[in-house]
Amino acid sequence: MDSTPSPSPSSPFGLVSSALGRYTRGGPAAATGPTNPQGDRTTRQRVPDNPAADSQDQILGVVNLDRDLRITRCNLDAAVFAGLGPVAGRPFADLLPPGDVPTVTRRLRQVLEIGEAHVARIQRLRRGDGSELVVSMSILPAAAPDEGLTVSLIAMAKRLHLYAAETAIGTSLDIGETAQSLAESLLAWGDVAAVDLDFAMWTGEGVTAQAQGRIRLRRAALVPDRVWPEGYVTPGDELPSDASRLLSQAVRRDDAPQAIVIPDREAVERLLGTPRVIRALVPGDRSASVACIPLVLDGAPPVVLGVAEVWRRPDCPFHDSELFDLQELVARTAHHVDLARQHHREHTQVLALQRRLLPRTGGHTIEIASVYQPATPDSAGVGGDWVNSFPLPDGRTALVVGDVVGHGLGAAATMGQLSMEARALLSAGLAPDEVLEHLDETVTLLDDADAGLAAGYSALGSTCCIALYDPVSHHVALSSAGHLPPVLVLPHGHASPLPVSPHPGLGAEFALREPFDVYTFGAPPDSLIALYTDGLVEDPALSIDEGISRLADTLSTVHPWDALQQTARHVVAALAPVRQRDDVTLLLARMIGYRKGDTATWRLPARDDAPARARTHVSALLRQWHTRGATQDDVPLLVSELVTNAVRFATGPITIRLIRAGPRLLCEVGDTGNGRPRLRRGGLLDDDGRGLHVVHRLTTRWGVRWTDTGKVVWAEVAR
Which alpha helices (DSSP H) does 487-589 contain, by range? Predict the structure, then answer.
């Protein structure tokens, strides 16, 4: 009997060998035939699936490896694999060029450890005579972990390679990956392939005719993956300006882009000129000739996106047919590179919009930190998560977080519109629930098929949460539209999600709409509030409640003296899933508030003597605060006018509040009236409205905000 079991028909090696329908050969460790009486192994011939098939047409081969990456079986009988000379028991690395051994070995080990196939990568194999064969190599894990690996090799004809390369190059919208796929395909015609693209490709702009001195090329891809000599340009590096200009001039002769071949090392050095440029562009001493093919977009005039370069050894000159194939491949794939550029521009715009909305700083009453982490670098995966934090004119601070349904430019556009609308409405003095009512209506209108931005996109079901922090009372008013509950961390470390009432979200059907509640809670100094989107707490292995509990537990370890931005990054690193399915957004706000000595509040009945009493209280406080003389005159007059207006229209008590906020003073007068003071043009003899004209002239800005019991008129004065 055969002491070495035959490969299982269901194993990767068996499946590929069955497809070959040829012979399996090997040494003592790999033979699959029976033993003859003399003890020698014979080779067993399998019946071909297609008896008429000619081995000259065979392009598929297979090699089986053990866990030490040594050859155990192989099927490389096709003529195209002649000269490789695989020997059972020898390392697979014997088939590789020395420079490729570390990279390929790393890939083989990775498949062994992880068990995931590494499919269809362009690779060179070394023949015994020193020549090389370009194949498409796939690494497959064996059916049983202890059986090693199966490596399938496809040596394709050049025309078939053109078709396969075009198909592979069009699968990504990333500029780097697209250029890498092109370079790997070009390797079939040379020893080294590189793709250099105009620097404008990475800015998302179109590449146009430029002055020769301003041309900039950046290396986008380089194959094979090996250690290159010092000074040689590798991916991510910019080419020296002289090299960029020479390449651009070479492929754009007579104002028409065209491929060129520099036939020998002497001509290469003569064209490049300086040793610095030679070190930057020539991949090694063995490379002697190069074909330069421009990546051209058809048009009037044609636009050159970059240059592809294929280098060869001196004993392998380029033939006309090969140059034609190279031009055809690059021409077929240039539009993929341009699509990647357009996609990169969209991706950049989306990220710029989202990062523009991220809060920059807090203020002297609140400390802000935020983290935004997109799920993928692909703009198709960039979602509509957004956070914002901004001071309101009346001294409060708004914290806003939202999650717009969907991904890409449509979601980003809706996100930007909702964010700006929320900021405008909050700055106008509306309460959080009133702002959400307006956003709810906006989402409904955007879902209309006739709306420009919403054509083919729906934002129904988007969520939003708004919190307003009052640094004087140390209270937060919060409203939520279907968003996950914020987490509050008290100064002593207790952390828990806030009991926010559930809501269906923005844009719900009219019959399902519910009123937006306002939840008010105390946030003493050194309290911490966390607003976030679901990408931070969603985990396939946990329920959403468990994810929120993990967030609360993590935040409970935060100390008041911890740096807030570093804390935010730590929380995201600890909780965000390894494989993100959604964007991760986190906003942390540490409440500081005003010191007790920087605020004063009086409550007066709505009587005729209220203005005089208010002036007395305010004047005494300003002398205590040592304000300048002009302020001591202007502020009592300002408060008197506001109180007079409140007494005239209000029925209940009047509240006066003065706040010392750095270089400014905030004056607030609250009453139970619901009329909005408006500044109007009046005649010389009109008495009505003169008080507001006085307020307007004495202040840097003033406004109105609404409360549950009436309104507050606030005004800001420089100290």
Answer: 544-555, 564-575
Q: Supply the pLDDT for residue 213.
A: 41
b/e 600-620 (16+ beta carbons within 10 angstroms → b): bebebebeeebbebbbebbee
pLDDT digit string (tens) for 361-381? 667 889 999 888 877 554 444
Asked if residues 240 and 219 have their Cβ atoms less than 8 Å apart, the reply is no
- Look up residue 303 and give its amino acid: V
Say how many residues make up the chain.
719
- Please, are residues 496 and 545 in contact by the beta-carbon 8 Å criterion? no
On whether the CB atoms of residues 150 and 63 are closer than 8 A, the answer is yes
Cβ atoms of residues 304 and 198 within 8 Å:
yes
Directed axis angle between helix 690-698 and helix 629-649, to 10°? Answer: 150
**Other C-beta atoms within 10 Å of 705: how many?**
21
- The token duo for 590 is 């540490």
The span from the CA of 296 to the CA of 332, in Å, is 10
The model's pLDDT over 10-49, given as tens digits with 9 standing for 90+, comes to 566 565 555 554 433 333 333 333 333 333 333 333 333 3
CB atoms within 10 A of CB 130: 10
DSSP structure class, residue 58 = -
Q: What is the value of pTM for the model shown?
A: 0.57
Cβ atoms of 27 and 120 closer than 8 Å? no
Cα 467 to Cα 441: distance, rounded to the nearest angstrom: 20
Cα separation, 667 vs 472, in Å, equals: 13
Q: Determine which helix (DSSP H) or strand (DSSP E) holds 153, and give its type and residue range.
A: strand 149-154
Residue 579: both structure tokens together: 């494989």
The answer to whether residues 168 and 120 touch, using CB atoms and an 8 Å cutoff, is yes
Q: Is 132 helix (H, G, I), strand (E, B) or coil?
A: strand
CA 572 to centroid of chain Cα atoms: 15
Question: Is there a contact between 587 and 370 (Cβ–Cβ < 8 Å)?
Answer: yes
The amino acid occupying position 110 is Q
